[in-house]
Design goal:
This protein is an alpha/beta fold. Among the domains are: about 150 residues, Isoleucyl-tRNA Synthetase, domain 2, CATH 3.90.740.10; about 100 residues, Isoleucyl-tRNA Synthetase, Domain 1; about 60 residues, Ubiquitin-like (UB roll) (Roll). The protein has 27 helices and 27 strands. α22 runs antiparallel to α23. The structure holds ligand ANZ and zinc ion.
């Protein structure tokens, strides 16, 4: 049994016809560097790749090209694969799959059926059918989840303004998991880490994670954790009734004595208008206008408060004061009750509104007892609200997994359906010549009569298939569980569902390192976490969270600093770069261009710097007197430092610092009198091979498979040097470092910061560093 296994995963791409993007290359090269590193450390590594190939973009592209997606998609991912191989990306190709492979989506459908059969704690189905006003893209002719509608109210895939349409939909009750999805962002994984892997049912993978040390929670970027929290948007407060029709949600019921106005959402007023209640022309006009703006733009975009007095009044149940009711778009229909009690003395937004419309601001003291008084009167109750809504799961498009349900009038359940039996999966998507969407809200599958008409799996009577398909998120909700068993499955082992695959999933899950774009901060990560939690409840999985460490890459912008886009014509094609500069130089450049998590503009000119460096490496080896029996002591010490520096850079995704180290090492080596031994050259090649595998192979006569053991490097001995450390020009301590380290600013600063006498003066960020090699460092804070 392998002692340590590392599962490194890059978010699998949607294989568009455009081919690989340089932004993909930045993510996937990082995955490859880490995979090579962990392999050389002697562990077992899984670093797989696959294709997220269902969904709207593929379907729209196929329609445009007058092709069928079944033929176009494999062509596209074949190209992606070729491009990745040209970049020496060492993925486990034997684990490759596409979400569109019937043997893959058979399991997607199987998981759907598990969710279908599951009920939440209150006995409600996790999947239900409901006629809802869904987000409807009039261009793509399909319904969308809230998460797919951007802040400006447009469809994230096509940019069209999204409308509403009333349609019966399949909906997933993700809100039943809202608290766990929120709380587990701070989950304590100790229970799983500490489990003895042999005696328990728990994943041995988690039990090995003791190397995470004190970090026993999710190791994710703070910003992404925050975005997940905000999307779930839990608010604890109270609901207070001001009149028969007007209730508010407040997190500050203790301020109720200071209410000087009520604001209701335009949607509520629209409801009153529809019911025939008389309102003024102004109110009508304002309401119509507000409803055209999307929720997000109302929340974020509009800085200036707008609103109209409805002329209605209500009585404050706390103090019997008469309160005017306004309609304003800062009250959101789907937050709380859609009504807000305006307390300008305590709330900034309310103050802005009151100031603008000359509404009084009443100075009050808070009353902690307000709720229990109001509760006794029967006009208030505790309430928790969430921003998260149930997940609309139906799509009225062709290119998705068919939803494996059958309508039978005789034996349908409360949703009117019978699930397709497991042994009939995959329910294959029929091949169609014409799969254009309809504008009636029906999926194109509704036209395929001999597919729709089927027999009921229970009674054998006539029945009809569901014609909606799944959203493309379905395939990416569980793909990280598929790689562990895909080799065995391909080899013919009977694995038709996740239960059959338990031992493989256990061996590798959860994912140790998950690398990808921050654009998935909400949707994909939330949906995947949701499915994992349901599968855990079903005892199919034995861990609560799919991704232990998440790292998000910075955007690669075009040379002009703008976002790369086909319409502007500023897209950089990695193939052109590889053809011109070679794959090693492209890899090096992508890892060196800037801190990995930061956005940065592409600079083709700078790739030649990498070409020159790699050339210099080869040239130096051929120079006379550069390779000796023994390394110069300075070079041996430098190598020792380099190994640690490269390693640190890889583990912290500071790949640019690793590469800077490699460059400095080569520069020192080129100085007069410096030589390194054959052995040390091979060690250097090992380090270089993470980033530039072809060059490394050409300069080394061994296969660098083992990470250099620094304890084996004979160095300078330990000549220690004392360095004075100042903070803001005042001497605060001294440190002892080796002769070599004393010339390395990074090492000196790091060591200095860790020294107690210095550390206590380090208030705030270091603004400036003055460094005199071998003598002094002054930290300006
Ligand atoms: C009175 C109050 C006084 C409020 C105060 C806050 C501070 P946060 O604060 O972000 O957690 N609210 C309630 N329903 C709303 C709706 N449909 N649209 C817009 N805003 C709404 O959010 C909770 C607060 O948001 C609630 O508490 C309410 O204003 C407002 F010093 O009530 B509060
Ligand atoms: Zn039946």
């Amino acid at each position: 049994m392998a002692e340590n296994k590392t599962y490194i995963l890059g978010m699998f791409p949607y294989p568009s016809g455009e081919g690989l993007h340089v932004g993909h290359v930045r993510i996937f090269t990082a995955c490859d560097v880490m995979a090579r590193y962990f392999r050389m450390k002697g562990g077992e590594v899984m670093s797989p790749m696959g294709w997220d190939a269902f969904g709207l973009p593929a379907e729209n592209a196929a329609i445009k090209a007058k092709k069928i997606p079944q033929e176009m998609v494999p062509h596209n991912y074949g190209n992606f694969k070729k491009q990745m191989q040209n970049l020496s990306l060492s993925f486990d190709w034997e684990r490759e799959f596409a979400t569109t492979d019937p043997e893959y989506y058979a399991i997607t459908q199987w998981i759907f059926l598990q969710l279908y059969g599951k009920k939440d704690e209150q006995g409600r189905r996790l999947v239900y059918r409901e006629k809802v006003a869904i987000n409807w893209c009039p261009k793509c002719l399909t319904g969308l989840a809230n998460e797919e509608v951007l802040g400006d109210g447009t469809h994230e895939r096509c940019g069209t303004v999204v409308g509403k349409k009333l349609l019966p939909q399949w909906v997933m009750r993700i809100t039943s998991y809202a608290d766990r999805l929120l709380n587990d962002l701070d989950i304590d994984l100790s229970e799983w880490f500490d489990k003895d892997d042999k005696s328990s049912d728990h994943s041995p993978k988690i039990a090995q994670r003791s190397e995470l040390g004190s970090k026993r929670t999710l190791d994710w970027p703070k910003g992404i954790l925050e975005m997940q929290r905000n999307w779930i948007g839990k608010k604890e407060g109270a609901r207070v009734r001001f009149s028969k029709d007007i209730e508010v949600f407040t997190t500050r019921v203790d301020t109720i004595n200071g209410v000087t106005f009520i604001v209701v959402a335009p949607e509520m007023v629209k409801g009153w208008i529809d019911l025939g209640l008389p309102v003024s022309e102004d109110v009508k006009k304002y309401t119509d206008l507000a409803l055209q703006k999307s929720e997000q733009s109302r929340l974020e975009g509009e800085k200036v408060k707008t609103g109209v007095d409805t002329g209605l009044t209500v009585i404050n149940p706390y103090n019997q004061e008469l309160i005017p009711v306004w309609v304003a778009d800062y009250a959101l229909a789907n937050v709380g009750t859609g009504g807000v009690m305006g307390v300008p003395y305590y709330d900034e937004r309310d103050k802005e509104f009151a100031t603008k419309f000359n509404i009084p601001i009443k100075e009050i003291e808070c009353d902690d007892e307000a709720l229990s008084k109001l509760e006794k009167m029967g006009v208030a109750s505790k309430e928790t609200t969430y921003h998260l809504r149930d997940w609309v799961f139906s799509r009225q498009r062709y290119w998705g997994e068919p939803i494996p349900l059958v309508y039978c009038s005789k034996c349908g359940d409360e949703n009117g359906v019978v699930p397709v039996p497991e042994d009939q999966l995959p329910l294959e998507l029929p091949k169609l010549d014409s799969y254009q969407p309809t504008d009636t809200g029906e999926s194109p599958l509704s036209r395929v009569k001999d597919w729709i008409n089927t027999t009921c799996p229970k009674c054998g009577g006539p029945a009809k298939r569901e014609t909606d398909t799944m959203p493309n998120w379905a395939g990416s909700c569980w793909y990280f569980l598929a790689y562990p068993f895909w080799v065995a499955k391909k080899a013919g082992e009977k694995i038709n569902n996740l239960n059959d695959a338990k031992k493989y999933i256990k061996e590798w899950s959860p994912v140790d390192w998950y690398l990808g774009g921050a654009e998935h901060a909400v949707l994909h990560l939330l949906y995947a976490r949701f499915w994992v939690k349901v599968l855990q409840d079903l005892k199919i999985l034995d861990f609560p969270e799919p991704f232990l460490r998440l790292r998000s890459v910075g955007l690669v912008l075009a040379e002009d600093g703008k976002k790369m886009s086909k319409s502007i014509g500023n897209v950089v094609n990695p193939d052109d770069m590889v053809a011109k500069y070679g794959s090693d130089a492209v890899r090096m450049y992508e890892m060196f261009m800037g801190p990995w998590e930061q956005s940065i503009a592409w600079d083709s000119g700078a790739i030649s710097g990498q070409v020159r460096f790699l050339g210099r490496v080869k040239e130096t080896i051929k120079m006379k007197g550069k390779i000796g029996e023994k390394s110069s002591p300075e070079m041996a010490t430098k190598l020792k430092i380099l190994v640690e520096r490269v390693e640190k850079g890889v583990l912290e995704q500071k790949f640019n610092t690793s590469i800077a180290g490699l460059m400095e090492f080569v520069n020192s080596w080129r100085e007069a009198g410096m030589l390194i031994s054959e052995d040390h050259l091979n060690m250097f090649a090992t380090l270089l091979s993470l980033f530039a595998p072809e060059t490394a192979e050409s300069i080394s006569n061994t296969r660098y498979l083992i990470w250099p053991d620094v304890s084996n490097i004979e160095g300078l001995g330990d000549v220690m040097v004392t360095i004075a450390v100042q903070v803001n020009g005042k001497l605060r301590g001294t440190i002892q470092v080796s002769m070599e380290e004393s010339k390395d600013q990074d090492v000196v600063v790091e060591t200095a910061k860790k020294t107690e006498s210095v550390n206590k003066w380090m208030i705030g960020e270091v603004k400036k560093i003055i460094f005199v090699p071998g003598k002094l460092v002054n930290l300006v804070v």
